[in-house]
Amino acid sequence: MPEPPARGAAELSLVVTTVGRPADFARLLASVESSPAAGRVELVLCDQGADRACTRLLEDSGTGVAWQATTSGRGASRGRNAGLRLATAGLLGFPDDNCWYPTDTLDRVLAAFAGDPGLAGLSGQQQTVDGRGSMLRWLPDPGPVTRTNFMRTTIMSTMFFRRGVLDEVGHFDEGMGVGSSGWYGAGEESDLLLRVLDAGGRVRYDPGLVVLQDETRNDSDTTFERKMLRYGCGNGHLWRRHRLPRRQLLWYSARKAAGVAVRTARGQRNLARADLAYLRGTWAGWTDRRPADWPEGAGS
Description:
GO terms for molecular function: glycosyltransferase activity. By secondary structure, the protein is an alpha/beta fold.
């Protein structure tokens, strides 16, 4: 097996969990390689695929980026925690396997933390290649991340933290997130962020710090609808766990309900059903009552 480049000098560890998406992971790897900060970055892969295709890709790539690879049981949170046990750098990022970085992004991350020693975390903005906001209705202006704006300023692929801060507040809750054994199919990254904020950590949002990802809502189907149900369950659980303002949850839910009506009127029935599934899931998670149509014993 080819040996990865020597470790030890990394300033930023990027911890990636993947299940059988080598083409997407190759794009992420190429974006790290093209960064001027590549020599200061370590890639830590948790490959949960049965064939370890992404691990083999790294072994065969001849990349100059320092890397480590491991595996774990299924689940994004479980994989990230496994990767964290190997990560050596003082800064951490958690890119999705299907996101990638513009050339200047990693340099900007390192410079932001170097210029502000008291900064606990940093978040950028996720966009599509044509510059549209992806997944969230992102705030346009920079500022602090708070308990009331985190839904418009953070997503897992855009967040970076100091290692010491995460070691203090605890790592990812393995009962939450995609692939978890429970029924809370999202919210693990916000749970981590809110624990950082509750501990007094200062997290900054910079919309000029861009992470790229395709907009998956453009390819919605019944699978996407089931995913949105799981995401809603995780979101409702998050709101209950952290005692977040009910009025804010009602506001987000009202916007989602309005979206159902608008998309139905436009004939976007798959998207409308997905939004409705998210609403059902949010209520289920907030009341801690598993959806009636959730298969018994099924995880997220």
